[in-house]
């Protein structure tokens, strides 16, 4: 028996992602959820569901960012376009509104507030009482 005859008897391996029709790897979701130690056992349908939800979110964000990129006459999606895509959609903004993108735009405004120069105190303010006076009862 040569190698061509033996290859006819064995079926080629088909990934779980290709069987479900998803682009994201289901096996990767399995590995990440097992590492996260969220539960003792994770069902196969849960892995497919997580992969499908993430694929749907990624598709929506990249689709909106692509249209924003085209609107700005650019050819490459930047982090700023992703931020605009999330901020312009109500549901995505509700889900990812508090996420900070350190590559462009979000963190620059916060640095101005965090690193303001300290004001010098005059001598009278340091002598003042810092504890509020007691509330009179009676």
UniProtKB/TrEMBL annotation:
It is found in: Nucleus. Its main location: nucleus. Residues 118-138 are annotated as: Disordered. GO terms for molecular function: DNA binding; protein heterodimerization activity; structural constituent of chromatin. InterPro entries: H2A/H2B/H3 (IPR007125), Histone-fold (IPR009072), Histone_H2A (IPR002119). Residues 4-87 form the Core Histone H2A/H2B/H3 domain. The chain crosses the membrane at residues 38-59. One of its GO terms (cellular component) is nucleus. Keywords: Chromosome, DNA-binding, Membrane, Nucleosome core, Nucleus, Transmembrane, Transmembrane helix. It comes from the Eukaryota. Residues 118-130 have a biased composition (Basic residues). Belongs to the histone H2A family. The nucleosome is a histone octamer containing two molecules each of H2A, H2B, H3 and H4 assembled in one H3-H4 heterotetramer and two H2A-H2B heterodimers. The octamer wraps approximately 147 bp of DNA. This is Histone H2A. The lineage of its organism: Eukaryota, Metazoa, Chordata, Craniata, Vertebrata.
């Amino acid at each position: 028996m040569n190698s061509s005859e033996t290859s006819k008897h064995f079926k080629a391996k088909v990934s779980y992602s290709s069987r479900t029709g998803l682009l994201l790897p289901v096996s990767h979701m399995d590995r990440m959820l097992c590492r996260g130690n969220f539960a003792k056992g994770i069902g196969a349908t849960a892995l497919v569901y997580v992969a499908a939800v993430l694929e749907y979110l990624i598709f929506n964000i990249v689709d909106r960012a692509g249209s924003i990129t085209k609107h700005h006459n650019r050819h490459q999606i930047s982090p700023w376009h992703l931020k605009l895509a999330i901020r312009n959609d109500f549901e995505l903004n509700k889900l990812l509104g508090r996420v900070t993108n350190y590559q462009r735009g979000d963190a620059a405004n916060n640095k101005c507030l965090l690193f303001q120069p300290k004001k010098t105190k005059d001598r009278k303010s340091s002598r003042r009482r810092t504890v509020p006076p007691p509330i009179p009862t009676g």
